[in-house]
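so my prof wants the structure for this chain in the tokens format not the other one, which i didnt know existed until like an hour ago. anyway here's the sequence
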Amino acid sequence: MNIRRFLEIALTLTAMTAMTAATAVTACAPAASGSLSETDRGVIADSIRKLVTATYDLSQPNAVARLMSLYPQTGPVYSTSSGQVTKTRADLQRQIDTFWRYVGSNMRKPEWEWTSMQIDVLSRDAAVMTASYRVPHLTPRNTPHVIAGAWTAVFVNRGGRWVVIQEHLSDVPASALDSLPAQSSEHAGH
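here's what i got, hopefully its the right format
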């Protein structure tokens, strides 16, 4: 066989191999129909925003049950706040119960104010929310008081329901709150 014929065969085999590899990669790639449009992202972000806002409406009864409704019934739930990490729904519920017993139930006329909320939709079934909040209220002695913080939460869609599987909360120290004007406070969390 001459060198020219050998090169033609080698190039043909190389081209066939490249086409086979490209076909395999394309077949394994996510379908274009699975990508999200900006409208889809907006709808998902709005549904999470509405869910979180309704859950944190402190004018509604059963605060602990409503807060716990954001988390899956089964599987791990990783939550970090006040320097502690919980890994189960039961541990998280104990923390929320404790917060509500000693802090939440003593707030008079509390109003949860979301001062910022960004939701990054990662896919049809995953999103990350980073938000800040402040909760002006009266103490049992009718003294004005504010608690505030920041909350980052990973949401997944399980069975058509958005739930938080991982979160991090941080409180704004009381001394920092005293030095911030009410309008410019940026905070969020439980």
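also thought this was worth mentioning. Residues 3-33, 183-190 have pLDDT under 50 and may be disordered.
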